[in-house]
Amino acid sequence: MTDGSDRAVSLAPVEGARYRRILLKLSGEALLGSRQYGVDPATCVFIAEQVGIVRERGVEVAIVVGGGNIFRGLAAAAKGMDRATGDYMGMLATVMNGLALQDALESAGIETRVMTAIGMNEVAEPYIRRRAVRHLEKGRVVILAAGTGNPYFTTDTAAALRAVEIGAQVLLKATKVDGVYSADPAVDPQATRHDELSYTDVLARRLAVLDSTAVSLCMDNDLPILVFDINQAGNISRAALGEPVGTLIHGGRDT
Predict the structure, then answer these.
(1) I need a labelling partner for 103 at 20 to 30 A (CA). Which of 65, 76, 109, 110 fits?
(2) CATH of domain 21-250
(3) Short-list 214, 91, 236, CA closest to 158
(4) Could you read off the pLDDT of 172-197 as tens digits, one per residue?
């Protein structure tokens, strides 16, 4: 938000908002919409509208987006491409997705900055932790692209790392399902959804929610993870405001 000048204005969190600062992790596939490849502008607008509601409530928002809708390094490596090369190509794909999200957010009047872990000054700012935090404090949405800047790390791990670095109070993991299940609900009709899980149970059961490095990093830093369905309208704002939605992963026992 702005005050009519180039200076962004920070909004005070409203009473009842559970989190002051969040990191939203989006998969590249979340931007597909009904497409088979690339970015669906209508889906970006759908996400931007919900982020706007969160910002209006005074919550500071950082976003990490994947690149699987454009390129997936691990799949390419399985077909013979060098894994590091594939991962770097995937990082570039996340920048493309970040720019698409920035366009949708700014079209909705939301001040946004894209910051990358790989230098490309003509299109985005370099990621500097203090600068990212300052943008958040000024009320800007910050999109953190290019993963960690290193191959062999997923964007889930990048999201956990950035969330810890910027002092986010929760990592919101947007998925295609409404939480974490005991088994794949598309395969096992008897699968049950967990309202809460502990980090150790996610790791021990090898539940496919985030990669183990990301979960371990969150566990070591006591950063809760909320897994929810992004396709349900309003879920981003519900999750950001602390309303009961999806599955909460934290240091306690699972239920």
Answers:
(1) 76
(2) 3.40.1160.10
(3) 214
(4) 999 888 888 887 787 888 888 899 99
